Structure formats: structure tokens, C-alpha cells
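User: C-alpha cells for Ribosomal RNA small subunit methyltransferase A, please.
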Amino acid sequence: MTKVEYKHTEIAVKKKLGQNFLTDRNIIRKIVRSAQLDPDDNVVEIGPGFGALTREICNVCQNVTAVEKDPALASFIRSEFPSVNLVEGDILKVDFQELAANGQLKVMGNIPYSITSPILFKLLENRRHIISETLMMQHEVALRLAARPGTKEYGILAVQLQTFCDVRYLFKVGKKVFRPRPEVDSAVVGITPRSTALDRYEHEFRTFVRTAFRQRRKTLQNNLRENYNLSGISSVDLQRRAESLSVDEFQLLFTELHAGS
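Assistant: Done. Predicted C-alpha cells:
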């Protein structure tokens, strides 16, 4: 069992919580600079761990909330950072409307590899409460988020996130700067939610995208015909594969299908 000790606290690393602690202060400062924080920002940090990023955030902002599931680490943050509003619990169960009571949020964190997608969709569903997200995640997932059409990384995650947010791949973070060292590299991504004409149809659109990518090697015609009326479609050639469509083309096709339903 791997153990990590810092100051007066030792924890047994829990793989299921994705606990890899960032130790490089230069990378930490770079993440905080990327978030473009102002002193009066309302910041939420996901999984503060031993507070390496928390400390740098607190050097800029006074209104900081940290969400930590591990009881030992929650106790550490409570003791080490008394000014931080600590929420001891699961980020997937947090009420973002409540967190945003004092203003919209800037969300930051080194998010656990094992639940990256659920966290991203939790944030997507609560984007009306969020100004920006500066998140470190597995490098492969970061590439998928920011992927462009026609690449192997481009798929459901890219289309769904890029439809409702501006997504930017910021920089890579090597595995050597973590304790314990993970098996893969990480990367920092910037996500900025925005309003779109599809906001009111978000659930339907996300279902549509999953259906379009159901079998990547098949055409749109083959993937969509069981669930949608494709007669008279003119916005997109249905003999193309989903991976070739831009985000804008997905929106056009969905709008045409929705208008004809």
C-alpha cells in the first residue's frame, strides 16, 4: 500500500479516488495564472489533496471552497486552511447552485482520472453557475476534449463539450511531478461555458450525438435511421461518418431533424 505524508498527516493512497498529488510549484503557479483569477472571484477547487494548489489560489482570492471526499485530507485542509470553506463530500453530489450563492464560480482542480467524464458532465449540467473551469486531467482525455473533426480523438466528448463550451488545451504536465507517480501524463484544459440556441434541448442533443457515434465506422444514415426520420435532410450528407462532422454541422443536423420531428 502506497502512503504519502505531508506535515502532520499521512494517508494511504486510494487508487479509486485517483489520488496523485502535484508537487511542482512552478506547474501549480502556471495553473493559477491560466485561471486568470481576480481577488473577488468565487473559486471552487475539486479535490485539494494536501492543498498545494489551494495555497496558491488563496494567495489571490479570499472566497475559496474546497471539495474533498477523503476524510483524512478534509481534516488536513480544515486545519491548514481555516479560511477555506471546506465541503467534505463527493463532487458529483455537490449542489452548485448553493456554491454559487455568492456569485458565479471559477472551478479548478486536479480531477481524479477514474471519474473525469462524470465530473465534466456534472460541470456541464451546472454551467449556468460557472464562469470558467481550469482542470488538470489525464492527457489522453484532454486531447479528446479539444479534438478536431477527422482525428482519432474526436468523438462524443468533444462534440458535447464543444457545443456548450469553449474548450482549450493549455499545456501538458509530465508524470514525474506527482506523488505517487501515475502511469500516464496529464494536461491542463481551460473550459468556458457559453449560451447557445441548443441550451433548451441539451438532453436531446447529447442523446443525438451518442447515437451518431454509436458505431464509428458506420455512416450517419446507418447510425441514425432507427431513431430519427431522415427523409428530406439537406444540411449534411448522411453518407458521411460522424467523426467527419464539425461541431457546427452537428448542430445544423440536429436542428433540421428536430424541426422535422
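User: Anything notable?

Assistant: Residues 3-193 form a domain with the Rossmann fold fold (CATH 3.40.50.150).
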